[in-house]
Amino acid sequence: MEKILVKADRRVETGKGSARSLRKQDILPAIMYAEGKSTPIKLNRKEIQKLIYSGVGEHALITLELNEGNSVASQHPVLVKDYQTEPVTDELLHVDFIEVSLKKIIKITVPLVIIKEPAGIKLGGILQLRMREIEIECLPTQIPDKIEVDAGSVEIGHSLHVSDIPPQEGLKIVTDPSEVILSVTAPKEEVVAAPAEAAVAEPEVLKAKGKAEEEGQQKEKKEK
């Protein structure tokens, strides 16, 4: 996995007013959490926004190079814990990082990527994708960018499950093995309408019946 380095400075300014002022300068307010402590920091907004929105930074190990005003900056292995965006413009507003130990196993979600089209699709089947991410346990240095899934053998009426993912060294899949990743269903059959002649049969019978009843009533009157 390629090392991702992000430079940051300790943030002295706090509060909503200072946060808005930083954003106007394309500087993003953020917080780094480590061992029960929180450190306010600030970093280049465009850089971290590009990283997170690309889908890489949200799941990857990041080396945060923190400048605290000293001659030597400290480096911290972190993960993106959470982030907030502006609802209308989708602009990144704030990021929470959490520092991790490189020697301790962590739990994290990573993207699933389908690398082969299911065989059933070529025969007219319909693909139903049920899962886009999977939860794993591994060391921070072993977090994969993605997990590739070969779905080439899935035919109509069949599914691909988490248990079908081949074992990978250093990774333990936490997601329930019985969970369905994708399935291929048969195309829907067209419903054929019933012939129009059948619809008029009943009124004709009712009409004939009514005529018979009318003739019977007239006969009774004559006998009386």
CATH class of the largest domain: Mainly Beta
Distance between the termini: 107 Å
Which class of secondary structure composition applies to the elements? alpha+beta
What percent of the residues sit in helical stretches (DSSP H or I)?
A: 10-25%
Number of strands: 13
What can be said about this structure in brief?
This protein has 224 residues and is an alpha+beta fold. It is 22% helix and 38% strand.
Textual characterization of the structure:
The structure is a single chain. This protein is α+β, with helices and mostly antiparallel strands and 224 residues long. The model is unreliable at 204-209 (pLDDT under 50). It folds into 2 domains: 4-99, Ribosomal Protein L25, Chain P (Beta Barrel); 106-185, Ribosomal protein L25, C-terminal domain (RNA Polymerase Alpha Subunit, Chain A, domain 2). Helix content is 22%, strand content 38%. A 6-stranded mixed beta barrel has the order 1-3-2-6-5-4. It has 4 helices and 13 strands. The longest helix is centred in the C-terminal third of the chain and has 27 residues, at 197-223. The chain starts with a strand and ends with a helix.
Topology of helices and strands:
Layout (H helix, E strand, L loop, with lengths): L3 E7 L5 H9 L2 E8 L2 E8 H9 L8 E6 L6 E12 L6 E8 L6 E11 L2 H4 L3 E4 L3 E6 L8 E4 L8 E3 L10 E2 L6 E6 L11 H27 L1
Parallel strand pairs: 1-4, 2-6, 7-10
Antiparallel strand pairs: 1-3, 2-3, 4-5, 5-6, 7-9, 8-13, 9-12, 11-13
Spell out the key features of this protein.
4 helices; elongated; four-stranded mixed sheet; 224 residues; six-stranded mixed barrel; 2 domains; alpha+beta; Ribosomal Protein L25, Chain P; RNA Polymerase Alpha Subunit, Chain A, domain 2
